[in-house]
Amino acid sequence: MNKNNCFDFLRFFFAFDILLAHLWELSESSSLFFLSRITDSSIAIKGFFVISGFLVAKSYTNTPSLKEYFIKRAKRILPAYVFVILFATILFSIFSNYGFYSYFTSISTYQYVAWNLVFLNFVHPCLPGIFENNLLCAVNGALWTLKIEEGFYLILPLVFYLLTKIKKPFFVLLVIYIGSILYWYIMQFYFNKPLLAKQLPGQMSYFVVGIFSYLYFYNLMKIKFKIVLISIFILIASYYFPLIFNVFYPAALGLIVIISAYSLLFFNNFGKYGDFTYGLYIFHFPVIQLFRQYNLFEKHNPYFMGVIVVLLSFSLAIFSWFVIEKRFLDRYKLRNNASQN
């Protein structure tokens, strides 16, 4: 498989799209509402899940043991994730309406830490005395996707077990895909539960498209132009006839994402200075929330404040990569190489 790809660019593009989408939504600034016309966090998240399916499937097949696979996944996600939760908990004690003693003796503070550390952010998303007058009180609403991502990591070995056991990869993946679509339709339309519809079973179709693209990569690339044309037609049709074409939407979007990763050659070296995507994703939400708490988008020029939010988020992403993420990944690589020698 060709190592030249622009996954780093696509992941960064999706993360930046989500940042801008949250910026106009959480700021509640009418001046920034124009961003709603050029951003779509839902598509970006789905794109992330497709890329995850492709890259994690590749990682799994190239990893000699199940233990090593889980260690690699944990090293990539957990260090920065744990840091952003604990860092936010401590830092926001300064900005809370509660005094320090009340804040750190409040059970709500420790409920936030505990539930977020086990990826159940929705159970207790807020800290005491912080963001109470914002659109949302959630400290970091972007973290909800990471429990799904972790779920994908746990499910992937089972998927590959079924693939080797049944020996009909296309059939297995198709069944999972259809099951995911059915779950989404039932929750979205029958039970009218959109929050449940977007949880792991409903997102599994995107992850499966990523796995499928990895397993059938060479076959897909041979007819990539036909696939792109058909996929574009499906995406447009799903906008006008959602009940019919939404069945094919994950496949169409996913295939375009993977083909783009190996076609946009100009962006192949995008990540040569570092992978700042994850940091940008997990740090931007609380930055916007803090600006909103003090009405900075109203007191000052909202465009200027938006630029400051972006720059602060980028700075924290760079910090996250070089101080936290890269150190843990490098430490793992050194230990792994030592064990092989």
Can you characterise this structure?
The chain is mainly α. The chain has one domain (7-340). Helix content is 73%, strand content 0%.
How would you sum up this structure in a few lines?
The protein has 341 residues and is mainly α. The protein has helices at 7-27, 41-61, 66-91, 100-105, 107-117, 144-166, 169-190, 194-197, 200-215, 217-222, 224-240, 242-245, 249-261, 277-293, 296-299, 302-340.
DSSP helix fraction: over 70%
Low-confidence stretches: none
Instruction: Give the helix/strand class.
Output: mainly alpha
Count every helix, treating DSSP H or I runs of 4 or more residues as helices: 16
Radius of gyration: 21 Å
InterPro entries: Acyl_transf_3_dom, Acyltransferase_3
Keywords: Membrane, Transmembrane, Transmembrane helix
Domain Acyltransferase: 5-324
Transmembrane segments: 12-36, 43-60, 80-100, 143-163, 170-191, 203-220, 227-245, 251-271, 278-297, 303-324
What is the topological layout?
Layout: H1 7-27, H2 41-61, H3 66-91, H4 100-105, H5 107-117, H6 144-166, H7 169-190, H8 194-197, H9 200-215, H10 217-222, H11 224-240, H12 242-245, H13 249-261, H14 277-293, H15 296-299, H16 302-340
Helix pairs in contact: 1-2, 1-14, 2-6, 2-9, 2-13, 3-5, 3-6, 3-14, 3-16, 6-9, 7-9, 9-13, 11-13, 14-16
